[in-house]
């Protein structure tokens, strides 16, 4: 049954830093982590604090082979990696991918940098899983698993960031976080990645009203997400990378406004699952 489903599950939707408390209980406080299941294949995007519960649940469901793609390595996108238990388990395969530091640092070097003393008690040497680090450059087309195509592009973010377009079974899901837009312009690289997508997961840290105060931080707005999705013919828009101070009630309000403008818009929350049925013939 699951062979015919492209599943997307949000494990961490919060940007910048994890939060907790009653005012964040419904949308959740974990930082960035998205699971995509293309039939039997499990892909993960970013290793924020949401990666810890993701690892636990996926192991419980019998997954032994993980491909984890980094958009970039700011703390909110990596802090969960040392707590990803499957890495310490014999018999598990973990493939890590990154491209935002191409030519400057390899994926292996990046991970070695922050999983070691004095930042962490041990080094990657304690991992018992088979760990494979892959490097790519923005624009490369990746084929991590049979029939799964992952297109990549550069986003506008301090230090660089990669946007992903995942294609499987005739369905398309794009991860566009973190990125800043120019007022009045549509980013061509983003348009390419989200063209005709079933779902666009977009950096909606700020509102347009707030944006002026935070120019240069490398983030965007739900209003820009709507414009991009309309221009690209995308059908779903997940408001994502919520500001750590944004409460549940505020996110409800933001979701209402976004839905009024674009019917396929919603504010993503931890644990939320979306299922896109695929055509069996289109699985290549
Ligand atoms: Zn971020
Ligand atoms: Zn960032």
Descriptive report:
The chain has 284 residues and is of the alpha/beta class. Helices cover 20% and strands 28% of the residues. The protein has 7 helices and 14 strands. It has helices spanning 51-60, 75-78, 107-114, 188-194, 208-211, 222-232, 248-261; strands at residues 5-12, 33-38, 41-45, 65-69, 93-98, 130-135, 141-145, 148-155, 161-168, 171-176, 199-203, 237-240, 265-267, 273-277. The strands form 2 sheets. It has a 7-stranded mixed β-sheet. Helix 2 links the parallel strand 4 (65-69) and strand 5. The protein is globular, with a radius of gyration of 18 Å. It starts with a strand and ends in a 7-residue tail after the last strand.
For the largest beta-sheet, the strand count, sense and barrel status come to: 7 strands, mixed
Number of helices: 7
- Small molecules bound in the structure, each named once: zinc ion
Backbone structural class: alpha/beta
User: Which of globular, elongated, flat, extended, rod-shaped describes the shape?
Assistant: globular
Order of SSEs, N→C?
A: EEEHEHEHEEEEEHEHHEHEE
Q: Distance between termini?
A: 17 Å
Beta-strand residue percentage: 25-35%
Q: What would the average pLDDT be, to the nearest integer?
A: 96
Spans of at least 5 consecutive residues with low confidence: none
Strand line-up of the largest beta sheet: 6-5-4-3-2-1-14
Radius of gyration over C-alpha positions, nearest whole angstrom:
18 Å
Helix content: 10-25%
Protein name: MBL fold metallo-hydrolase
InterPro entries: Metallo-B-lactamas, RibonucZ/Hydroxyglut_hydro
Organism: Mesorhizobium opportunistum
């Amino acid at each position: 049954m699951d062979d015919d489903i492209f599943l997307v599950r949000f494990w961490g939707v919060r940007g910048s830093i994890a939060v907790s408390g009653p005012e964040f209980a419904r949308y959740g406080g974990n930082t960035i982590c998205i699971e995509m299941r293309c039939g039997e294949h499990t892909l993960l995007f970013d290793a924020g604090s949401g990666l810890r519960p993701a690892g636990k649940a996926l192991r419980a469901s019998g997954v032994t082979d993980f491909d984890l793609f980094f958009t970039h390595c700011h703390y909110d996108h990596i802090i969960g990696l040392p707590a990803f238990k499957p890495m310490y388990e014999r018999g598990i395969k973990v493939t890590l991918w990154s491209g935002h530091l191409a030519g400057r640092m390899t994926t292996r070097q990046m991970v070695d940098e922050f999983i070691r003393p004095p930042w962490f008690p041990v080094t990657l040497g304690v991992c018992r899983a088979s760990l494979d680090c892959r490097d790519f450059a923005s624009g490369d087309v990746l084929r991590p698993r049979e029939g799964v195509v992952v297109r990549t592009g550069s986003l506008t973010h301090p230090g660089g960031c990669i946007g992903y377009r995942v294609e499987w079974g005739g369905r398309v899901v794009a991860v566009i976080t973190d990125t800043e837009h120019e007022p009045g312009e549509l980013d061509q690289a983003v348009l390419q990645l989200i063209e005709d997508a079933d779902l666009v997961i977009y950096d909606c840290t700020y509102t347009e009203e707030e944006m002026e105060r935070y120019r240069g931080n490398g983030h965007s707005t739900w209003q820009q997400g709507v414009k991009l999705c309309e221009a690209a013919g995308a059908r779903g828009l997940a408001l994502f990378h919520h500001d750590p101070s944004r409460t549940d009630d505020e996110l409800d309000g933001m979701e209402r406004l976004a839905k009024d403008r674009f019917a396929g818009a919603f504010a993503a929350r931890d644990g939320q699952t979306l299922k896109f049925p695929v055509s069996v013939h289109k699985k290549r």
